[in-house]
Amino acid sequence: MDEIRIKNLRTLSDTGYVKLKKINVLLGRNSSGKSTLARVFPLLKQGAKLKSKSGILWYGSDVDFGSYHNAKSRSSKDSDAISFTFVKNSLNIAPHSLYFQSKQKRIQQPNSRLRRVEVTAEIFEDEKKTAIYELKIGTCTARFSMRGMISAKFSISGVDLSIAAQKVVYLYRHSGLLPDIYPVDRANLKLVNQSVFTTLLKAFSLDARSIALEQLDELPINILYNRVLIARRLGISSADLTKNFVSFLRAYVMWRDFPLIWETMRD
Prior knowledge:
The chain has 267 residues and is of the alpha+beta class. The protein has helices at residues 34-49, 68-71, 99-103, 162-168, 189-203, 213-217, 227-234, 243-266, and strands spanning 3-9, 12-14, 18-19, 82-93, 112-123, 130-137, 140-147, 150-156, 159-160, 169-172, 180-183.
């Protein structure tokens, strides 16, 4: 983890992105949040050791925040969540070593390196233990919600893909802040990907003749960043890449490789 951002935790209304080094020195006035920031790490460790429907154990042997109500910033609104954002500035993805890849019949992607990957967990206090998670790479964001231990809604770049996601992935909040991800047994991945392909084409107002699904399956993960690489891979001029077309490509690649990216970040 290279950076962390925390919102609405005790006196920390928003830390902004805090860079983490091998040695970190916290300076500030009394009651400015230094201790709270330092206690975040044992808090996360505590939640990872034991099962919790919310992913966070506010009270335990490592650290004591009391409860969600006690931990939440007094300056925040009732509708605000306590949120944690984790950043990796260089994420190596090796599909062959991931559990998800070994259990689902997928086109084998080569090892890739992504720059700046962000994961955010927003934790709410309610009887259903609601949480919202985001995976952000460049301008593309995957977002899903959890009710208790089970996933509810899933979208990429604002396009609702909940039904498709339920057919191929199973997100389960077992222990720790970030849910585990598992493949659905006997899922027809090819059929679901075709459905997502069609849905995204419509969402970005593109003609079905713009590109073939087979071309997308050959695009590398790091295409999420590089317009020149997109043009080279597709054999077209970068000047011909419209904003909608690039957004569509990034959304599909995010969908295709979301399990691999998520599992790598969680690990």
